[in-house]
Specification:
By secondary structure, the protein is an alpha+beta fold. It contains 24 helices and ten strands. It has a five-stranded antiparallel β-sheet. It has a three-stranded antiparallel β-sheet with strand order 5-7-6. A two-stranded antiparallel sheet has the order 1-2. Helix 19 packs antiparallel against helix 20, helix 19 runs parallel beside helix 21 and helix 23 packs antiparallel against helix 24.
Length: about 550
């Protein structure tokens, strides 16, 4: 078979054409309805039947409630999820015994939450292979346990007494899929993690311009509590102590301090889906007694005229210490991180806590300033918005996908959790979550897994989409598919690759990109054809010349 014929065959396979008279996408013919035949379910009934039939049925045509519960939990929907409480209550027997349910009972139970349950059963939530992600996080947790470098914070006496061996990791996706491991329900103080919400509250109240008249938005390059302001006499950004003191001063200044604190605590409660937000009075008192540097920062800002007129400095500092002393646990902070990943909407309650614009500003500064004077290195190696606190908490946000919290009290020289940083390194080494992974995926590197994609989609549909885009010269789509984890060098069942198709169709720009991305510039299909022979057979001399150049030179010599 010659190259043009193969190219035509490739296009036929990709578009799904099946020869003369075929109708692409047409439904199979059905026999005419007779009065003695039941009609096929349609609409919602068809969806309920499809979901019900995905479970094993007993001789009476019923399914086990345990199997339904198990399927939901494997998808990451936990029993305390408020969105599916009605369905879960109906699925459980009071005595915990086995319960078989009919189609009608199943419909009655899931009707209120049908969309969420349907997506969970079909594997269409934010992370389709959630059990795989959970297994990987559990493995990484065990790999982190032997790490004992660093030390707990000692400048606040109460923090110095925390058990340094504790470790917890929790994840929550924007669809509310959750998993946790370790000491995930041990409460700890937010400390500097509280700065994120204080900044968001100030933004919602005063807007970007109103807030940034009083605080900058550049990394300081210095320690979080450094006695330094920017050239305008303002704190460098809201993620250092001076900046957080400033944003705290902007939160409902018309109210008394008790009501202002209630608003901050209530906001954390909303972000964590009604979690039991606490307050550690001992840490608050301990921090207030060791607050000379924070008082110095406050007086310095007051001297430079950074505060709004009429600000009570003593009350502002008290309010700031109280916000830092709010207590949450790892599971709650993961939900809060997921709320930021979800543009300010809590995934478990669908409560729009913050506006998308506010979250965008917050995540931008978390990306550049959230990890103290390690922020630049973190942005380079991890590439995700994050905020750490000296209690050992690290809140990581993967926008549009999930939030993660890691808590381990031992800190490095920058004040970041040692195990938390190591977790982030391991995560981005295995998963395609770095903000700029899309630029390097497939560039001769081992492709990382994309948690957003179904396993079969990446292996089958992704290859089909890639070869079609290559044949059409759609370079943007080729790049996007490579960024999503589709290996640019993958071949179909005939051994045909995207490079074959692009060369056969004379798509010079796509060929140039693929030559820089694949490790083998001369793949051979089942008929012995190569991209070079395809280009030559179809008279694409410019593509053939580029192919020969690539074969003579190293891959790095081919410019993208």
């Amino acid at each position: 078979m010659g190259a043009p014929a193969r190219a035509r065959q490739d296009r036929a396979v990709i578009t799904g054409s099946a020869g003369p008279g075929s109708r692409e996408g047409a439904s199979p013919a059905r026999p005419a309805h007779r009065d003695d035949q039941p009609t096929a379910p349609t609409g919602a009934e068809a969806i309920y039947r499809k979901l019900f039939d995905s479970f094993d049925r007993d001789k009476d045509g019923k399914i086990s409630h345990w199997e339904v519960l198990s399927r939901l939990q494997r998808a990451g929907l936990l029993p305390d999820d408020p969105r599916i409480q009605h369905a879960l209550t109906g699925l459980r027997e009071a005595d915990g015994s086995s319960k078989q349910i009919s189609l009608q009972q199943f419909k009655d139970l899931v009707r209120r939450d049908s969309s969420l349950i349907q997506r969970a059963v079909e594997g269409n939530l934010a992370v389709p292979e959630f059990s795989v992600l959970a297994s990987d996080i559990d493995r990484i947790y065990r790999e982190l346990l032997p790490i004992r470098s660093g030390s707990v914070a000692d400048y606040i006496p109460q923090l110095h007494r925390v058990d340094p061996e504790q470790l917890a990791i929790a994840v929550c996706t924007v669809d509310g899929q959750r998993f946790s491991v370790g000491d995930a329900r041990v409460a700890f103080c937010l400390q500097s993690v509280s700065k994120t919400v204080s900044y968001c509250l100030a933004l919602d109240e005063h807007g970007v311009d109103g807030v940034h008249r009083h605080v900058g938005r550049e990394p300081s390059g210095q320690s979080f509590n450094e006695l330094a302001l920017n050239p305008k006499g303002l704190p460098h950004n809201p993620m250092v102590n001076a900046g957080a003191i400033m944003t705290t001063s902007l939160i409902r200044p018309d109210l008394d301090i008790a009501d202002r604190f209630d608003q901050v605590a209530a906001t954390w409660r909303r972000l964590t889906a009604g979690g039991r937000v606490g307050f550690n009075n001992a840490v608050y008192l301990s921090e207030r007694q060791t607050a000379d540097r924070n008082f110095a920062l406050g007086y310095s800002m007051r001297e430079s005229g950074a505060f709004r007129p009429g600000v009570d400095l003593q009350q502002t500092l008290e309010f700031y210490f109280q916000a830092c002393s709010i207590e949450v646990d790892t599971e709650m902070l993961a939900v809060a991180a997921a709320s930021l990943a979800n543009a300010g909407v809590c995934p478990l309650t669908e409560d729009p806590v913050f506006t998308p614009a506010t979250v965008q500003s917050c995540l931008s500064l978390m990306s550049s300033c959230g990890m103290y004077d390690f922020s630049g290195e973190f942005a380079f190696t991890i590439g995700l918005p994050a905020k750490s606190g000296v209690s050992g908490a690290l809140m990581l946000v993967i926008p549009g996908l999930m939030g993660i919290c890691i808590w381990s009290p031992r800190l490095d020289e920058h004040g970041n959790s040692v195990r938390g940083i190591e977790f982030c390194r391991k995560l981005v080494a295995e998963y395609n979550v770095h903000v700029f992974d899309s630029l390097v995926t497939g560039q001769g590197r081992t492709a990382k897994r994309d948690p957003r994609r179904k396993k079969n989609h990446s292996q089958i549909e992704g290859v089909v989409a890639l070869t079609w885009a290559a044949s059409q010269g759609d370079l943007n789509e080729v790049r996007a598919l490579a960024a999503a984890g589709v290996d640019p060098g993958t071949a179909d069942y005939d051994g045909r690759t995207a490079l074959h198709l692009a060369a056969a169709e004379g798509q010079l720009d796509v060929v140039r990109y693929l030559l820089a991305s694949v490790t083998d510039p001369q793949p051979v299909d089942r008929w012995g054809g190569t991209p070079l022979s395809d280009a030559e057979s179809n008279g694409h001399t410019d593509v053939a010349d580029l192919m020969r150049q690539a074969l003579r030179a190293t891959p790095e010599a081919v410019a993208v």
